[in-house]
Design a protein that fits this description.
This protein is 31% helix and 26% strand.
Length: 252
């Protein structure tokens, strides 16, 4: 079976990478490459696609997901900015359809990054002081990153009855943004691609779980996995960890 994929954001860095991977794969076919001039309202460019890959920007992502669902295509969302509340809206939308396609939200396609977030979730059960520092290239328009948001959500879920992390003086702007009760600090700098550090503190010790992306090739296996799984997926799936079979404490 050949999976026909429409790529939204095909002219961006991630989009160009995805297009190359699709064209090189024997079981994938590029159905359409969409950019900012594509007319999603008419759905013509999405008709016939099995999967739509969204690697655009937060302002466009919701409309692309809605258009793909309307066209009956499964969706892989690689765009940041999707909160739990917005994802829940998509779940409700799918429940209203007789034959609903699957939607997979992937904050990060890097297997190493996903494992780093998973390790942080497990460690969060044993430390009360936890903060996240994430750094990306200067051109990344959103902050905190989707990966940092996902990590903070996993940390909060893993703690369960232990309650929120210790975040003293969180009312001060320099203390970062609270995401699920976890302080997150964002850097946007030239010379970087992507990096995240989760710092956990306890009596007499700290533990740092760090992941650095040094090349976009780190995303390749995750992109291919998500596209192939999306074609037969049902409902909403959040995180590459779910596709990798990781059972994280408290995760949805």
């Amino acid at each position: 079976m050949t999976i026909r994929v429409a790529v939204a954001g095909a002219t961006g860095k991630m989009g160009r990478l995805a297009v190359r991977l699709i064209e090189e794969a024997d079981d994938l076919e590029l159905h359409a490459g969409l950019d900012s001039t594509s007319n999603l309202d008419e759905l013509d460019e999405l008709d016939g696609a099995d999967v739509v890959l969204d690697v655009t920007h937060p302002a466009a992502s919701q409309g692309i997901v809605e258009a793909a669902i309307e066209a009956g295509a499964a969706v892989v969302v690689g765009t940041s900015g999707w909160s739990n509340e917005r994802i829940a809206e998509v779940e409700r939308r799918l429940r209203d359809l007789d034959e609903a396609p699957g939607v997979i939200f992937v904050p990060n396609f890097s297997v190493g990054s996903v494992l780093g977030s998973a390790f942080a979730a497990f460690a969060a059960q044993h430390f009360d002081s936890i903060e996240i520092v994430e750094a990306h290239h200067a051109g990344k328009v959103d902050s905190p990153s989707g990966t940092a948001v996902r990590t903070a959500e996993l940390v909060a879920a893993a703690r369960g009855d232990a309650g929120p992390v210790a975040a003293p003086h969180a009312d001060q702007r320099a203390r970062g943004q609270l995401v699920s009760g976890v302080p997150v600090h964002s850097l946007r700098m030239s010379g970087l691609l992507a990096e995240q550090r989760v710092i956990l503190g306890g009596d007499g010790e700290t533990l740092t779980i760090a992941h650095s992306t040094i090349s976009s090739s780190a995303y390749e296996s995750g992109i291919l996995l998500a596209l192939r799984r999306a074609a037969t997926s049902e409902g909403v799936t959040v995180g590459l960890d779910a596709l990798l079979g990781l059972e994280l404490p408290g995760a949805r």
